[in-house]
């Protein structure tokens, strides 16, 4: 849900707009679209529910399956439904599979010998620094996070910024 909101906000910002104008989003419990919306970013779960209600996907011209390498039940079910819908009732429905790390040729075959478009990215050197806390961290309770974890993360980031050049990317439990 966070990614769907963030993607929509970024696209809207690039257009000089707010979400809900030409670019909107729908996640469980929140829908921000308007009459002018032409791009709607949705979660896999929302798309699956929409397919169950309206197999024709009325008003939809293109579905982009982003991060198609992420294999899970909802994503695989959505892909199967979309392929069936396109074959049986919506041959005009365009499907795009996007990923930085997937088997492009396999997806191209699955989508009916679709062309593969490759974009060259820039790779940067990455140094991995493993910095576990000194003591076990209590699991989060609702929105509450163990303050010891926050203190440890802040200290680790400060140390990394002081000792090294460049940016810091943290992966947390």
SSE layout and pairing:
Blueprint: H1 2-14, E1 23-27, E2 30-32, E3 39-42, H2 44-53, E4 62-66, H3 73-88, E5 94-98, H4 104-110, H5 147-163
Parallel strand pairs: 1-3, 4-5
Antiparallel strand pairs: 1-2
Helix pairs in contact: 2-3
Domain Helicase ATP-binding: 1-120
Keywords: ATP-binding, Helicase, Hydrolase, Nucleotide-binding
GO molecular function: helicase activity; hydrolase activity
Number of helices: 5
The profile of the biggest β sheet is: 3 strands, mixed
Structural class: alpha/beta
Uncertain regions: pLDDT < 50 for 5+ in a row?
none
Quaternary structure state of the chains depicted? single chain
Strand order of the largest sheet: 2-1-3
As for the CATH topology of the largest domain, it is: Rossmann fold
Shape: globular
Rg, rounded, reads 21 Å
